């Protein structure tokens, strides 16, 4: 809203009104505003939740040896994050931008889905929350909406990057096609040209390969949104863990969104130019600011938990943003922590079921998701169960685990950026 107001005032020569046209100004202002809202609103919201006794009522000492003292800590803190993101975006973003609209819909959709899950856990005293199939249906639905909008919207276009070798064969010049078109290409690391075309994957469909490619793209969108939102949800098991990791990931996505919207930077990195993606920088700066502000209260010892209201929303935002800027195939590296957390749960369940068929009680890790195995003491293990991996022998305090996971995410973030220059 403020963007349109000051662009209107600029026509009358109002001093300073022109700066609202700069993406860097609006993005940094969104970050600061989101941080302030998150910190200020967070304090008020925590007091409100405590007064209404909307707090944690159950904690399993066997799984969370340090978390028993957390009974009585307010949950549903994801509402703080959502408010701190949406207010700056609504004030500073260009609301006619299709990408901003998709990000807002994703935030509200998954925020509602996670909020429903938290409501059942807290108010109905059902620790299982929303049934898994309903949660999956909600995630699939928003993935389907995003995929179809990007397919049919005339505003979702790119200028494809072309690598042209000079006659000597030693120098490569990257140029972009002059016209913006609908495209099924996405960025893939480690290969020359950096592009993968979904239509080429479906080339066996003959003349229908383009339509089949779009169907594959929609399916891929659904998978990515579901996988990343669930990965973020699993990662949200320790104070500050998910918020810190997601803020780091948000920084990288913000860099990608910015360079994708700048034709010279896009040419330098040999990636496609995406007109309009600069508005995602405003959204992602608000996202980063909201998470940093939330960490003020969520860092150990947490004064509030984000709950599924926050974790599902965070994962969905990361996934949809990556899809919009055609960087979804880089998420296994960038969101490596989420991927490993999800994989540890899958492996734990598979190994346990395999043992059940043999009549043996067995587990691959001490606990799952992976971060839980680091804080589980040896004496907490069931003597009747065989564990494939029992390390570490002692329990590591969760604050140290959280910071170490942040460090790993920083390394993965750096590697993700570096991959654009390795081909």
How would you portray this structure in words?
With 423 residues, this protein is mainly α. The protein contains 15 helices and six strands. It has helices at 2-10, 23-51, 78-92, 98-123, 132-152, 198-201, 209-235, 241-260, 263-269, 279-298, 307-324, 331-334, 336-358, 370-374, 398-418, and strands at residues 161-165, 172-176, 185-187, 195-197, 362-363, 386-387. The chain has a two-stranded antiparallel ribbon with strand order 1-2. It has a two-stranded antiparallel ribbon with strand order 3-4. Helix 3 (78-92) runs antiparallel to helix 4. It starts with a helix and ends in a 5-residue tail after the last helix. The model has no long low-confidence stretch (mean pLDDT 88).
What general outline do the C-alpha atoms trace?
A: globular
- Structural class per helix/strand content? mainly alpha
Give the mean pLDDT: 88
| Approximate helicity band | 55-70%
Question: Could you tell me the number of beta strands?
Answer: 6
Radius of gyration: 23 Å
- Major sheet description: 2 strands, antiparallel
In spatial order, strands of the major sheet run 1-2
How far is the N terminus from the C terminus? 42 Å
Per-chain topology:
Elements: H1 2-10, H2 23-51, H3 78-92, H4 98-123, H5 132-152, E1 161-165, E2 172-176, E3 185-187, E4 195-197, H6 198-201, H7 209-235, H8 241-260, H9 263-269, H10 279-298, H11 307-324, H12 331-334, H13 336-358, E5 362-363, H14 370-374, E6 386-387, H15 398-418
Parallel strand pairs: 5-6
Antiparallel strand pairs: 1-2, 3-4
